[in-house]
Design a protein that fits this description.
It is globular, with a radius of gyration of 19 Å. The chain is an all-alpha fold and about 160 residues long.
Length: about 160
């Protein structure tokens, strides 16, 4: 039982590491915005939610695997190596493929013009709503970009 519980500690440590990666934070922001939009304007079936949740979990999971692959490759050698480059490229391709698939799922699930128009009208029917969206997007950009900027600035 102790080994089983330690597995959660290791996973938590991995999550704490991967959240430091800019691309992972970007995908987390996308998950938050998509979830808010889905809850606010769509009444998805259980099956549609299952597809959406699996899609939203797949992209960050593959981003975490990409980060793990990059870390391992960097441990193996710091020199330029064709096999290492291909390994990293393939891991990045997995993230790209899943992100493209996520966009396709998004188009399939959210591509209802009537609902999109309802959301658009709702957004612009009160001047505070677009402002709130801009603030939320600003916070997301800060969440994605600021940690990396601050880390670079603090280096001697």
């Amino acid at each position: 039982m102790k080994k089983f519980l330690k597995g959660f500690v290791y996973a938590w440590n991995g999550l704490r590491f991967v959240i430091k990666q800019r691309n992972f934070r970007f995908h987390l922001c996308a998950v938050v915005f998509v979830t808010a939009f889905a809850l606010g304007f769509y009444e998805f079936s259980r099956g549609e939610w299952a597809v959406l949740l699996l899609t939203m979990g797949l992209v960050p999971a593959l981003e975490a695997l990409n980060t793990a692959m990059e870390q391992l490759c960097d441990k193996v050698t710091s020199k330029q190596d064709e096999l290492i480059r291909r390994c990293k490229d393939c891991a990045a391709a997995a993230v790209l493929i899943s992100a493209i698939a996520a966009v396709a799922v998004g188009i399939a699930l959210f591509g209802d013009g009537e609902r999109l128009m309802t959301a658009w009208v709702y957004l612009w029917s009160n001047p505070l709503r677009p402002l709130s969206l801009v603030i939320a997007l600003g916070c997301a950009v800060a969440f994605v970009l600021l940690p990396e900027y601050l880390e670079k600035k603090s280096r001697p």
